[in-house]
């Protein structure tokens, strides 16, 4: 009798896991409490995979030998609680896919910058002619690629949710960019729980593997002193210090690995801002460890075009610059965006609060913000924090209203910055929907 695998969640991750499970001969059911998008239904039907939507039939789920859970489903969901009560293993799609490939895995996580760094590493490897796949939070499902479009190397962006249900999976190169409060609502509002999740990226590594990390992050530094990672360490920092492998000196980006030294002028980097300097250092380290030639790294770092919804320049309208940073779904990400601004800012923020502490951006808001527009279904927490700052605040319940108010409040030479600090699910489908609506509204000005 075939082993029974149940997949929970019918999006990119779940559909890929179901296709891989079917290809490996398992008895497969995919179940989603919401409606499954038509494109994924078509993919499942084409391969003869049984699915259900808008329900979880417990009798069909609780007889599974193993369950693959999509990252968006929290552990407190009733069906997950029932599975745990019965002792049925629950794993992630990445964990499941990792069992069926021996490809090199370059894995990136962090509270901020992981999508940009993932895309940058992928861009460098593509430019080098590598057989490389893009997976995790970006690209196609890793499981789907392992099943039907395999590659020698995968570059994988991993959220804390994806890391939570990984046990035996191993990263050949692990990149940890930073750890700041995020998604605390999923971690019982305990920062250590979230930190533990992020550090799962180095589990199972040996000294043959590489661990690339930001040396100056206090949370990372504390945890490394406690955990003593087994991998070879490649710390990076903005400035040169003992044992630092990636840094800047005399306006040059420098990578020092045991085998060679890489240099390029900092002015040639395509991505601007301190946060993107760190992303570029991490990506360059990964490329050097992988063996990419120096001239390819230089060229790729110089012509990378960036990531949509991350400090994306939209338009200049009547002397005001409009920037879409909808991907800034936590406070630290907004801090980086504000830190990179060279003008006065009308800041649009708000959405689904995830346990945010706005103290981190308070000084930058006071020094750079001309006005704040709170775009959310419930802005009470934002008002409670910012109303005493003497900066003008306005509420908006839709993107057209927010952009119209921002346009009115901005002065010539200002920047209107959408950098919400929050998740998007109160008023939008996701951060992409929020960013696209912003761009459309700016286009209508």
Concise synopsis of the structure shown:
The protein has 445 residues and is α/β, with parallel strands linked by helices. The protein contains 17 helices and 20 strands.
Tell me what the structure shows:
With 445 residues, this protein is an alpha/beta fold. It folds into 3 domains: 4-88, Rossmann fold (3-Layer(aba) Sandwich); 95-303, Mur-like, catalytic domain (UDP-N-acetylmuramoyl-L-alanine:D-glutamate ligase, 3-Layer(aba) Sandwich), CATH 3.40.1190.10; 312-443, Protein-Tyrosine Phosphatase, Chain A (Alpha-Beta Complex). The protein is built from 17 helices and 20 strands. The relative contact order is 0.09.
Q: CATH H-level name of the largest domain... which superfamily?
A: Mur-like, catalytic domain
In what order do the strands lie side by side in the largest sheet? 7-8-6-9-10-11
Structural class based on helices, strands and sheet pairing: alpha/beta
Instruction: Count every beta strand, where a strand is a DSSP E run of 2 or more residues.
Output: 20
Question: How many domains, in number, for the residues?
Answer: 3
Q: Identify the CATH class of the largest domain.
A: Alpha Beta
């Amino acid at each position: 009798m075939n082993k029974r695998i149940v997949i929970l969640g019918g999006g990119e991750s779940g559909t890929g896991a179901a296709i891989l499970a079917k290809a490996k001969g398992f008895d497969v059911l995919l179940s989603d409490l919401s409606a499954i998008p038509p494109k994924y239904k078509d993919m499942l039907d084409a391969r003869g995979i049984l699915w259900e939507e808008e329900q979880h039939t417990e009798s069909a789920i609780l007889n599974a030998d193993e369950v693959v859970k999509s990252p968006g489903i929290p552990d407190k969901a009733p069906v997950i609680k029932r599975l745990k009560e019965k002792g049925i293993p629950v794993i992630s799609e990445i964990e499941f896919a990792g069992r069926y490939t021996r490809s090199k895995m370059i894995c990136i996580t962090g509270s901020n910058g992981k999508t940009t760094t993932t895309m940058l590493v992928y861009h460098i490897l593509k430019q080098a002619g590598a057989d490389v796949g893009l997976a995790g939070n970006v690209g196609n499902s890793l499981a789907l690629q392992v099943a039907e479009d395999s590659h020698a190397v995968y570059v994988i962006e991993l959220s804390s949710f994806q890391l939570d249900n990984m046990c035996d999976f191993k990263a050949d190169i692990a990149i940890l960019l930073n750890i700041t409060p995020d998604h605390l609502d999923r971690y019982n509002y305990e920062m250590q729980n979230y930190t533990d999740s992020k550090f799962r990226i180095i589990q199972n590594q040996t000294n043959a593997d590489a661990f690339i990390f930001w040396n100056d992050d206090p949370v990372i530094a504390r945890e490394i002193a406690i955990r003593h990672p087994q991998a070879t360490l490649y710390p990076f920092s903005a400035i040169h210090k003992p044992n630092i492998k990636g840094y800047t000196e005399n306006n040059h980006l420098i990578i020092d690995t045991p085998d060679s030294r890489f240099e390029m002028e900092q002015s040639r980097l395509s991505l601007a801002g301190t946060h993107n300097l760190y992303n570029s250092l991490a990506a360059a380290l990964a490329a050097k460890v992988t063996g990419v030639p120096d001239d390819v790294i230089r060229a790729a770092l110089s012509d990378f075009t960036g990531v949509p919804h991350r400090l994306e320049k939209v338009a200049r309208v009547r002397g005001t610059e409009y920037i879409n940073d909808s991907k800034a779904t936590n406070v630290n990400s907004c801090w980086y965006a504000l830190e990179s601004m060279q003008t006065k800012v009308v800041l649009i923020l708000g959405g689904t609060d995830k346990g945010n502490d706005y103290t981190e951006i308070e000084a930058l808001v006071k020094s750079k913000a001309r006005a704040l527009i709170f775009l959310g279904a419930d802005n009470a927490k934002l008002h409670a924090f910012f109303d005493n700052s003497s900066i003008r605040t306005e509420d908006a319940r839709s993107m057209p209203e927010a952009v119209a108010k921002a346009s009115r409040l901005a002065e010539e030479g200002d920047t209107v910055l959408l950098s919400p600090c929050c998740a998007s699910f109160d008023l939008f489908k996701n951060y992409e929907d929020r960013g696209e609506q912003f761009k459309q509204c700016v286009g209508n000005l």
